[in-house]
Amino acid sequence: MFPHTGPLLVALGALAAARAAATAPKVRAPCSAIDSAAVAHTEAYFDNLVTSQESAQTSLRRSLDLSQMAQFATHYVTDSITCQSARRAVAFHLPEPYEQSRLWIYDLGPNGYAVEAPDLAPPGEPRPVFLFDRHWRYESTLEL
Fold first, then answer.
1. CA dihedral defined by 123, 89, 56, 52, rounded to 10 degrees?
2. Which of 85, 90, 101 is nearest to 130 (CA)?
3. Terminal-to-terminal C-alpha distance of the chain
4. 11-42: buried (b, 16+ CB within 10 Å) or exposed (e) per residue?
């Protein structure tokens, strides 16, 4: 019927797809870009918490149900599967929507994960850090 309409239809389809992509709402990646200084501070905090033998740290560690370790290096997580799990776990425990919030995820080894939510506190105020076990069961929240 119209033998030369194939390329035109392909071009119109590509244009429509490009327009839809440009107007689609932006979804935040599961792992958020980091603030290097803040992340380094949190990593050092947890390294000290799980390795310290000071009574105050031992008491806090026990109250958070964290195990003491001779030495440990907390590390920031960037793999998308862990980041998606963290985002789902935090969403389950927060009463308000937070889809646009940044999340910084730390691997605490056998102690599980710490998920820092820097956007959930006003600037200069302590940020909530949610603690989860290795299976993403909520353990507790602390503020740093």
1. -100
2. 90
3. 69
4. eeeeeeeeeeeeeeeeeeebbbebeeeebeeb
SS3 state of residue 104? strand
Q: Distances in Å between the alpha carbon of 144 and those of 69, 92, 125?
A: 21, 21, 9
**Helix, strand, or coil here: 130?**
strand
Own/partner pairs for 139-142, CB < 8 Å, 24+ apart? Answer: 139/64, 139/65, 139/112, 140/63, 140/64, 140/65, 142/64
pLDDT tens readout for residues 14-57: 334 344 434 333 444 567 777 888 889 999 999 999 999 999 99
Give 108-139 pLDDT, tens digit per residue.
Answer: 999 999 999 888 888 889 989 999 999 999 99
Integer Cα distance of 86 and 116 in angstroms? 10
Backbone CA torsion sign across 94, 98, 99, 105: negative
Helices (H), the chain: 5-23, 36-51, 55-63, 80-93
Cβ(120)–Cβ(127) under 8 Å? yes
Which residue is associated with the tokens 């980091």?
A: 34
